[in-house]
């Protein structure tokens, strides 16, 4: 079984057990070493194109494509960049989590969002 199949199988199994998407994402990060943003998308069972389509349903005046998610999910590499604070707030709503869950708690640009979520340490 390749990693992609294993990821999909684990996420599907955990969703069937009614585990929260945040908890599923944590398991995916733990087992497969992916970042928070990617793991939350996969916890929902979405491809990047599906996540972009979900985004576009919610915010049709600010459409996104799968490529936007590629850049954001790779924000900590030379091939990507972090979403701006408004995008972080929207991603948190899209993935039904807090900005902290998205993995931006240590970034000073997003600290105020994390503090507002009530989950800052």
Polypeptide structure, described:
This protein is mainly alpha-helical and 121 residues long. The chain has one domain (3-117). The protein contains 7 helices and no strands. It has helices at 3-16, 21-32, 36-43, 48-58, 66-73, 85-94, 111-117. It is globular, with a radius of gyration of 14 Å. The termini are far apart. The mean pLDDT is 87.
Provide a quick synopsis of the model.
This protein has 121 residues and is mainly α. Helix content is 58%, strand content 0%. It has one domain.
How far is the first residue's CA from the last residue's CA? Answer: 38 Å
Largest sheet: none
Shape: globular
| Derived structural class | mainly alpha
Mean pLDDT over the residues? 87
How many DSSP H or I helices?
7
Number of E strands: 0
Low-confidence stretches: none
Proportion of residues in β-strands: under 5%
Could you tell me the radius of gyration in angstroms? Answer: 14 Å
Query: Could you say how many structural domains there are in total?
Result: 1
Can you write the helix and strand succession as a string? Answer: HHHHHHH
Fraction of residues in H or I helices: 55-70%
